[in-house]
Write a structure and sequence with these properties.
Length: 50
């Protein structure tokens, strides 16, 4: 999403917009992504057992 802050940064620094992609954070830190998925699954399981 192109925010006003991002637009201003692009104008000041004369750069273009580069979409990092939907899996950028997964590629950047795969262990953190795995922990997030695992935690999310545990939370869902806990809610169902109530």
């Amino acid at each position: 999403m192109l925010t006003p802050q991002l637009s201003m940064h692009m104008l000041i620094h004369d750069t273009g917009f580069h979409d990092l992609g939907g899996d950028h954070y997964t590629k950047h830190d795969p262990e953190r992504a795995l922990r997030r998925i695992t935690f999310s699954d545990q939370t869902r399981t806990d809610r169902r057992s109530r």
